[in-house]
UniProtKB/TrEMBL annotation:
Binding-site residues, beta-D-fructose 2,6-bisphosphate: 475, 532-536, 570, 577-579, 633, 659, 665-668, 741
Binding sites annotated in the UniProt record for Mg(2+): D122
Listed NCBIfam families: 6PF1K_euk
Organism this protein belongs to: Pagothenia borchgrevinki
Pathway assigned to this chain's UniProt record: Carbohydrate degradation; glycolysis; D-glyceraldehyde 3-phosphate and glycerone phosphate from D-glucose: step 3/4
Function: Catalyzes the phosphorylation of D-fructose 6-phosphate to fructose 1,6-bisphosphate by ATP, the first committing step of glycolysis.
Chief localization: cytoplasm
Region annotation C-terminal regulatory PFK domain 2: where it falls in the sequence: 406-790
Single Gene Ontology MF annotation: ATP binding
Assembly mode: Homo- and heterotetramers.
Residue segments, region N-terminal catalytic PFK domain 1: 1-393
Cellular component terms (Gene Ontology): cytoplasm
Name of protein: ATP-dependent 6-phosphofructokinase
Amino acid sequence: MAQPDTKKIFFENLSGAGKAIAVLTSGGDAQGMNAAVRAVVRMGLYVGAKVYFIHEGYQGMVDGGENIEEASWESVSSMLQVGGTVIGSARCKEFRNHEGRLKAAHNLVLQGITNLCVIGGDGSLTGANLFREEWSGLLTELVEQGLIEADAVQKYSALHIVGMVGSIDNDFCGTDMTIGTDSALHRIIEVVDAIMTTAQSHQRTFVLEVMGRHCGYLALVSALACGADWVLIPEMPPEDGWEDKMCKKLSANRAGMKRLNIIIVAEGAIDQNNRPITTENIKNLVVKCLGFDTRVTILGHVQRGGTPSAFDRILASRMGVEAVLALLETTANTPACVVSLRGNQSVRLPLMECVQMTQEVQRAMDGKRFEEAVKLRGRSFENNLRTYKLLAHRKPESELPVSNFNVAVLNVGAPAAGMNAAVRSAVRVGISEGHKMFAVSDGFEGFYKGQIREVKWADVGGWTGQGGSLLGTKRTLPAKHVEKIAEQMRMNNINALLIVGGFEAFESLLQLYEARTTYEEFCIPMCMLPATISNNVPGTDLSIGADTALNAIVETCDRIKQSASGTKRRVFIIETMGGYCGYLASVGGLAAGADAAYIYEEPFDIKDLQANVEHLTEKMKTSIQRGLVLRNENCNENYTTDFIYQLYSEEGKGVFDSRKNVLGHMQQGGAPSPFDRNFGTKISAKAMQWVTKKLTETFRKGKGRVFANMEDSCCLLGMRRRALVFQPVVQLKDETDFVHRIPKEQWWLKLRPLMKILAKYKTSYDVSDSGQLEHVIRNRPKESDASVAM
């Protein structure tokens, strides 16, 4: 008999009654900070704690008075989509002095606050930890000065601190992504995409400076996302003589009919002697050596501004709730911790371990130990750098290995943003591995018709930022045409297959695996990359294209909600795509601040609909003016979007009116988000390296051909929690509901109670994944380099 899971706790066991939690934002602002503040306030109130804003960061804590304000549920309404931080942030010299911290302690004790949630960078978090260590001594001083009663020392004996990292630079060790980084990448990529059109018109070279005084993450990832010709970052200065190499590369690209060049420079870029490399230096170099028309664009504070992306809103909301849970569980002996992201999982890490490693990176750079600095940044950063070098710098033909293997790549199913980035990555990595790469047009329909052509390095230039599928994609499955496909594989001597697509791609791979018993042509390494906006493929937590679709949903919901501003109370019913999979409705609902999201995986009836209407009616009687309800297109055949709209319209009469909107195919279109470009690029590169390994292992020298018929030669590469894992497709059959085309278990269902809590519903929240304080790991095992958060 199975033992009950003793780790499975629900937050009802964690009471915040009698506790006071204060939240502040400190240092530089970052998009998503408001989402974190909102989550802390609402989760804190939900568990019965008093929650306070501290305005203007540590300065507000030192000044006290009106800067420390009790928060209410309504006070954080409509802040989810706002950039920056609405409670203000300021750098505070006073707090660095003992006297300043003494004032801050006094102001906290006056309000009974002993739980602090600090959202900021490493400087802000280090200051918070020092404050915590001095706390008991500060209280003793306050008693001696007669500012507080003696019993307050016992009553407020310990200060508990939990940090969340808000920084667009992503320069904090221990987390894959910091709050604000993804939004900053959105701003950069929007500018780069716009600049590319004008650069192409005039055959210009553009030198772009992005933020990152001590960290090259934004420069590196944006270079990867737009296919920049050259990137300069502080962690890995270019080798001596880089000027000639760069000019040769730019010249070669122009000779190859490329009409523009993009060079991305981190503001802290340096050479091997720690001398700064500026955008003006590079412009003058290109003009002098090549005579190219060259312009400089410095993005500056544009990167900090604008609305937070869907990723940042979800990350900040998850981190905010996790921070409150961490504060509820702390004891006097618990070290200050930060809540952070590893792979797709939230974790808690000792604050000072993270700070010390972050400081080690700078020391390594100052000491010119640049390889060490890259390693200390973490496997995600290292992987990004390796992938960029692999894709941006083509080796001379003489240096390429000769494999004599032919690898075909195709798209199957509906188009998804990021597919083209994956194909570009596959083609270029394949060529670097010595393979001949073949592109198949229009999926398996094109395959059996013989629409197969060899593709070269330059053929996929500029593909990264293109939406849809440039190869063409169809939903046709191979089963009916398996004989013709086998014939085409024989004629073109195809030795391996890479399929990029959604659920149809998964079914196709299963059919090809089963066809191995009849056709030896399919006894080759075959790999699938999940690419679908529905995120309904088994064996992976995330799919290429889903992030772009989420951003489209969230941007539209923001606009729709804004359309009601200044009007009477209004509820919007929004229909999303996804087939039977409720990922877009649920996660989009969390990111957009929805009041409810109806999905197939969580059955509902008329009583639930009625309860939702009543809940919204109660909320509308307060200062909240707008409601948002999302509905997955196939959540229920009877409770259609029209039905729900009419029900809300009828039952809300006199309190609110209703509007409906079907988002449709706008969720499938548009340029891919930075996340999808990089996710597609990185997992495709990893898949091609797996293909090379399998081709080498399964090549039969005696027969002079590849023969792979084992389960592990037909795999799906998916992201599972913290790891990128190759899984045999036959082993995923039992995890799949083929009728409804969804996995039987889906991780994001755990996020649904979070959406309900933040919308003021009473519900259970599973915290079985929480509560474990981990440690910063310098070199994680190779398989755990998921870091799909870029």
